[in-house]
Every structure is written in structure tokens, then in C-alpha cells.
Write a structure and sequence with these properties.
The complex is a heterodimer. Chain A has helices spanning 2-6, 8-42, 44-56, 62-73, 80-104, 108-116, 121-152, 164-173, 176-204. By secondary structure, chain A is mainly α. Chain A has one domain: Orthogonal Bundle (MetI-like fold). The longest helix of chain A has 35 residues, at 8-42. Chain B is mostly helical. The radius of gyration of chain B is 20 Å and the shape is elongated. Chain B starts with a helix and ends with a helix. The model of chain B has no long low-confidence stretch (mean pLDDT 85). Helix content of chain B is 84%, strand content 0%. Classes of the chains: A mainly alpha, B mainly alpha. The interface between A and B is large, with 40 and 40 residues.
Chain lengths: 213, 220
């Protein structure tokens, strides 16, 4: 406890660094997954290929991906951008399937009805399909956010600063409270983000009380 | 791109695969860790998961534990265990088991639960006992999902086994961390590609066996 109090400024800094890696990755995974999922649903024969294909990305272990990705990106292994792209890929692996399922769950009768009353395809997507798929999309987003927050810390072994640095420092110097604080803060951060997502869902989708599950 | 060529040279060179510290030995070590972790975790999680699915009791526990494990940072788990039990294989093995148990548990209970109540009722009506229903009906029909749980656990463990070298154990992570410490990017890259290859091959094996099973069971 004393160690944690003495190192509070550092823990705060690392928490911020952690968020700066995780949040852009979660957001871009969500925003990229939507059009992919939409397109996959439109072109039926490709749906299973796209959905399973992106899902397969999740089979790639995280540390090796952090190391291989710079070859394609032309960045350094320790670059923030490299880490964010890798995390985005893992997010996509989870999000494309849930987004495709969410958009697919919209009742076809509703879809036909909105076309019949004159919605253009774009307007129908944004004002009918997206809101109706909202709760299921939120459920997928919550899974992505939790897993991204916990994945970030692996990059610490490469020297990227995040809450994971509390693990590497703690291990190298034999400080148990450092590691405990890291695990605790990661869990708290995941919980906090989850609560924020649920709250945002309630505000944006007041009709779906009871959350996304 | 030069680095990639050098990494492939390393991977295609017989020399780097041979010897006690070569890629071959490290890959076997990696596989051995994975297998051992799966055996220990299955011994714990399969009976519990099957019991949860069969009786319907403790379902919430199974759901919560698989959610929690997603939030657990693997590196934190390994380093914490290493500070308590020391350098070596024990610490990573503890972490592997903690990570693998919830996936296997979730797969086992979901598998049993996926069997239609009409089918289990019919089995009971034929005079089967609870055990017979479990062993002759629920387990075979739930097998694809049970294997799915093992598949998720395997992925987790193969990935995490790379970190075992960070706390003094072996596996392909050895080469990776050696490359990291000596600023040898091609070596890091070669080790990373080997881990990725291993993970994808294992995953493909599971995919294949699940498909085969579904076909054999007539679930497609």
C-alpha cells in the first residue's frame, strides 16, 4: 500500500499512457468493423469468408504481432502507432463478427418496410438498421474494450510505457505491490470503460434499457 | 524488408533449428508447455464445466469467470507468479492454467447446454440414468463446443507461452527475448513468425476436427 501511495504520480502517468494506446485502438476497431460487417452482409457468399477470416486474426499471439507489424508499417517496434495498429487488428478480429451478426439481426420485414416508405439505402442504414442493431453492437464493443485494455500491457516487454511497465519494473526489481497495482489498475480501467460504455448506451439508446445483452 | 529476408533465412537454415537451443528444441518446448497446461486445466475445468452444464447449477459462475479472464493482463499474472514461486516453469504454468480454465469450463458447459432438452428427455424416457445421459448423449452431442473451449484455451496458452521466457522458462519466447536484448531484429522476427505459424497451425487443426465432428454427428 505504501509503495502504491509513494508511486501514485507514476501510476497515474502510466494509466494515462495505457488509455492513450487502448482508446484509439478500440475506437478505430469499432469504426472499421462497421463498414466491413455491412459489406460482408451485403455480399452473402463472402460473408463467412470475411467474418471467419478476420476472426482468424485473433489466433495471432499479441507479442509476435507487435514485432512483425513494423515490417508492414515501416515503424519501429516501440512506436505508439505500431502498438495501436496491432491492438486495432485484435479488436477487429472480435468486432467484425459481432457487428455482422448485429446488423444481420435487424428484421427483414422492418428493412423492407423502411424501403417501402421511401428511405434511401444510406438513410435506411443510419436511421433504421444502425439504431436497431445498436444494443448488439454495444455488447460487441464492450468485449473489445475489455480485451484491448488487458492486451496493451504485453507491449511493456518491448519497452512501450503503459500499466504493463508496472509488471516489468516490478518483476525486475522484485516489487510485488508494483505488479499488484498494475493488475488492479488494469481491471479498474476495464471496469470503468465498461461502465462508461453502458452509460453511453443508455443515453444514446434509451429504448434498450437493461443493457446490450 | 531486408530484415524479413534475414528472418526467413534464419527460419530456413537447418543450423538454427538444430541443437538444444535451436528453433526445433524451443518449438517442442513451446508445444510441451501448451500440452501440459491443457492437460492440467482440462483435469480441473472439464468435470466442473460438465457438471455445471448437466445440473444447470453454477452457470453464473462459469459466465463470470470467462468474462473476468479476458480482463486479466497475462503479463501481470506471469510476473506476479514468478515473484512468488521463483524463476522457472512453475510460474508461467500457473498463469497458463488460470487463463485456460475459464475457456475450457465455458466450452464444456455450453456444449452440454446446447443439447436440446427434448433429446435429453427422450434419453431419460428410454430409461437412461443421469450418468448415461451425460456420457452417451450430452458429451457426444456437445463435443464440437467442448472442443471449441479447448481451442480458445490453446490459443491463449500458445500466445502466453511466448512470455514464459521473460520469467526464465523456455519456449520460442527464448529466441524472441534473445533478439530483443541483443537488438537482433531478424532473430526476433524469425521467432515471432515461428510462434504465429505454430498458433495458426494449431488453430487450423482444431477448426478441422470441429468440422469433422459436426459432420460425423450430423449437426451440419
Amino acid at each position: 500500500m505504501e509503495w502504491i501511495l509513494n508511486n501514485l504520480p507514476r501510476i497515474t502517468d502510466l494509466t494515462l499512457a495505457h488509455l492513450l494506446l487502448a482508446l484509439p485502438a478500440v475506437a478505430s476497431a469499432f469504426l472499421i468493423a462497421l463498414p466491413i460487417a455491412w459489406a460482408a452482409n451485403r455480399v452473402r457468399p463472402l460473408r463467412e469468408v470475411v467474418v471467419s477470416g478476420t476472426g482468424l486474426l485473433y489466433a495471432i499471439p499479441s507479442l509476435p504481432l507487435f514485432i512483425v507489424l513494423p515490417i508492414i508499417l515501416g515503424t519501429g517496434v516501440r512506436d505508439t502507432f505500431n502498438v495501436i495498429v496491432a491492438l486495432t487488428i485484435f479488436g477487429l478480429a472480435l468486432m467484425v463478427r459481432s457487428a455482422a451478426d448485429a446488423l444481420d439481426s435487424v428484421d427483414s420485414g422492418v428493412r423492407l418496410a423502411s424501403t417501402a416508405v421511401g428511405y434511401s439505402p444510406a438513410k435506411r442504414f443510419f436511421s433504421v438498421e444502425l439504431p436497431l442493431a445498436g444494443p448488439a453492437l454495444l455488447a460487441g464493443l464492450r468485449v473489445v474494450s475489455v480485451s484491448t485494455i488487458s492486451l496493451v500491457s504485453v507491449s511493456a516487454v518491448l519497452g512501450v510505457q503503459s500499466l504493463g511497465s508496472l509488471f516489468t519494473d516490478g518483476f525486475e526489481r522484485g516489487i510485488v505491490p508494483s505488479i499488484a497495482a498494475g493488475i488492479l489498475m488494469t481491471a479498474l480501467l476495464a471496469l470503468l470503460l465498461d461502465v462508461l460504455l453502458i452509460a453511453a448506451g443508455r443515453v444514446i439508446m434509451p429504448w434498450a434499457r437493461g443493457g446490450g445483452r | 524488408m531486408n530484415h524479413l529476408v534475414e528472418a526467413f533465412d534464419l527460419l530456413l537454415d537447418a543450423e538454427s533449428w538444430s541443437g538444444p537451443g535451436g528453433f526445433g528444441a524451443r518449438m517442442l518446448e513451446h508445444l510441451w508447455y501448451t500440452a501440459l497446461a491443457l492437460i492440467i486445466s482440462s483435469a480441473i475445468a472439464l468435470p466442473v464445466g460438465l457438471a455445471v452444464g448437466h445440473t444447470g447449477r453454477g452457470r453464473a459462475l462459469a459466465v463470470i469467470s470467462s468474462g473476468l479472464v479476458r480482463a486479466l493482463p497475462t503479463l501481470g499474472l506471469i510476473t506476479l507468479a514468478a515473484l512468488f514461486v521463483g524463476i522457472g516453469l512453475t510460474a508461467p504454468m500457473i498463469a497458463f492454467v488460470v487463463l485456460a480454465v475459464p475457456s475450457i469450463l465455458a466450452g464444456a458447459y455450453a456444449g452440454v447446454e446446447s443439447v436440446s432438452p427434448a433429446t435429453t428427455d427422450a434419453a431419460k424416457a428410454q430409461g437412461m440414468s443421469g450418468w448415461q445421459v451425460l456420457i452417451k448423449v450430452e458429451i457426444p452431442l456437445g463435443l464440437p463446443l467442448i472442443i471449441g473451449g479447448l481451442r480458445n484455451a490453446t490459443l491463449q496458452v500458445v500466445a502466453t507461452a511466448t512470455l514464459a521466457a521473460y520469467v526464465g522458462a523456455g519456449g520460442l519466447g527464448r529466441q524472441l527475448f534473445l533478439g530483443l536484448r541483443t537488438q537482433d531484429y531478424p532473430l526476433m522476427l524469425a521467432a515471432s513468425l515461428a510462434v504465429i505459424l505454430l498458433a495458426i497451425i494449431l488453430d487450423a487443426c482444431f477448426e478441422f476436427s470441429q468440422r469433422l465432428l459436426r459432420r460425423l454427428l450430423g449437426l451440419v
